[in-house]
Amino acid sequence: MSACAAGHERLRGAATGASASHAMTDMNRSGRRKAVVLLSGGLDSMVTAGLAREAGFSVLALTVNYNQRHLVELASARRIAAELEAERHIVLPIDLRAFGGSSLTDDIDVPKEGAGLGEDEDGSIPITYVPARNTVFLSLSLAWAEAVGARDLFLGINALDYSGYPDCRPDFVEAFENLASVATKAGVEGDRFKVHAPLLHMTKADIVREAARLGLDAGMSWSCYDPQEGQHCGLCDSCRLRRRGFEEAGLPDPTIYVSAA
Question: Is the residue at 57 inside a domain?
């Protein structure tokens, strides 16, 4: 069984194997378990949401408007949530530009050089890293999940293409699950939360193929960190990774890039 197929089986098992301790609020009216899915509007989050739905979860989509440079991704998130028939979609405003510290939330140029590997040539964490972003976003997901009785959280982090980011690694996922077990009423009462990161060990080409397999239009998603003329710039790390993923997957890329890599 391939890594992708094994991951799908685990997701389906999670959707059908609810413990007796789960509250009835974990289910929607159709009897499907609820899951809070972080939906940025990017390709990875779109595929993650699609996998959650395929596994039988009812999707509660959470999009965070953190006043990012690429606010255009919010429109993509709305389209994707509608396409996947999310039970509910919340766009939550939190202005991280007040903190800065990243080229996505500060007056710092987005790097346009490099191989598109997600980390700087010297192995340092790139300036596109937003301080503690995934911790903040997962905490918001956790709060919503506990409020509605859901015990499953989904996010589209990837440890291969974004290995420069500390919050895109397996130990981060494990650590957050442990935190959730001691930081919530549900957790201390023994009703643990599960953090699903189904793309964690996939390449970008794998993710592109998953989008096609799920029947999702990749053109709905947005990846570019520094939009130009309403289109993908074609030169930032995220654009380079996206373009390379389609090329390696051997699938047509629906993206319009302003500049060639």
Answer: yes
pLDDT higher than threshold 60 for residue 58: yes
Number of domains in the chain: 1
Quick one: pLDDT at residue 4? 58
Enter the tokens of residue 70: 């690429």
> Which domain range does residue 27 map to?
3-218
- Do 193 and 53 meet the contact criterion of CB atoms below 8 Å apart? no
Give the separation between CA 206 and CA 131, rounded to whole angstroms. Answer: 27
Rounded CA-CA distance 48/54 in Å is 10
257 forms beta bridges with: 232
d(CA 246, CA 252): 6
Q: Where are the alpha helices (DSSP H) in 84-195?
A: 133-148, 170-183, 185-188
- CATH number of the domain to which 14 belongs: 3.40.50.620
- Looking at residue 19, its pLDDT comes to 41
Q: Residue 101 region, left (φ>0) first, then alpha (ψ -120 to 50), else beta?
A: left
Between the alpha carbon of residue 103 and those of residues 10, 15, 175, the distances in Å are: 36, 38, 27
The C-alpha angle 100, 106, 109, rounded to 5 degrees, equals 140
Please say if the pLDDT value at position 115 is more than 50.
no
Amino acid found at 16: T
Signed CA dihedral, 201, 205, 207, 213: sign only:
negative
Query: What is the CA angle 238-200-113, rounded to 5?
Result: 20
Whether the CB-CB separation of 163 and 119 falls below 8 Å is answered with yes
Residue 74 belongs to some domain of the structure: yes
With respect to residue 251, please indicate whether it lies within any of the assigned structural domains.
Answer: no
pLDDT above 80: residue 23: no
Question: Considering the domain boundaries, does residue 154 fall inside one?
Answer: yes
Which residue from 130, 145, 129 is spatially nearest to 37, judged by alpha carbons?
145
- Whether the pLDDT of residue 32 is over 60: the answer is yes
